[in-house]
Amino acid sequence: MAAAGWLTKDVAVIAVPIVTLFLGLLIGWLAQRSGFCSIGGFRDFFMFKHTRLLYGYMALILGAFAGYLVFWLITPAAFENFFWILHKGLMPVPGAPASLTVAAYVILAVIGGIAVGLIGVLLGGCPLRQYVMTSEGNLKSLWFVVGMCIGAVVFTMWVSGWGVALLKAAGIA
Amino acid sequence: MIMAENKAKSEEKTSCLDTIARNPLYVGLAIGILAAFVQVLLISAGGPEAYGFCVACHTRDVVNVAVNDIAGTKLAVAAISQNAILPVMTVIGVLIGAFVSARYYQEFRKKAGSAVSYIWYLAGGIFFMIFALFMGGCPYRIGLRIGYGDVVALIGVIAIIIGVLVGIKIATAMAEREG
To answer: Which of B69, B77, B89, B165 could disulfide-link B81, Cβ–Cβ 3.0 to 4.6 Å?
Structure first.
């Protein structure tokens, strides 16, 4: 059974770029005003005990949970596997390289997470913040965004396959 | 000093809406709820779930669809971007929205760096993207996935915190050596 939202598939395929563009405009404006940053939130908390940005990220998780819960109650068909762990156990929501074991996903999450946190702190922000700083005229962040675009192609073409092959050779995947 | 100036400037044109927009707490709440709203609206176009907002994955979708169109390759993208007439445009919206906001509030400043710093940022962007996609999303989608009930995402956030702590150690050590 395919998941069904408020828009039918014929309408939704046209609405996707329009709705997400407006979502992006709104988030871009809000993030520029607030300096919203997930990794910056952790950094400010551990370095200066500032909780302003950290509360923002925690609010995102809470807001997402509340939003999913409310919309799931209204339209369960759009959230087939909510609450995920009750349906799929420890398997993660798809997005990383497909069809691995739970152990492999945990290893990828740990390695990926540490690298993401490390790079984010050293270069002054998570990807959203880099996008916003680019729009504020920061040329260093512009190069970060260019790097992300290159990284996407490099990952999809080669690195994703290498990673899966490595995990399989190690007998984990 | 600068902070005081900024504060004075912000108090000049404080509107109720802007007070909300300047508080990360409300912004985070709004992003979370909007991401859920986008899913209930658009999920018929295709999955995955908990995909309403992600800077890394949505960049991947836009770039890969563009490369596929130009070079005729078949790079993988999320089903929602594959099925729709155009991929998810969130990141384009973020760029435009933040630019308009920065212009409107006169916070747009051209900031250049050294050539070496550009190379660091370029390399940082490439590796950031690769590791984020291995994890299955940037910190934002990880947050959404936690809200959706994904345990591996919770492990991802703990790993991000470890990475941040290591990064702080490195940055402090580097600052001490230079200072």
So the answer is: B77
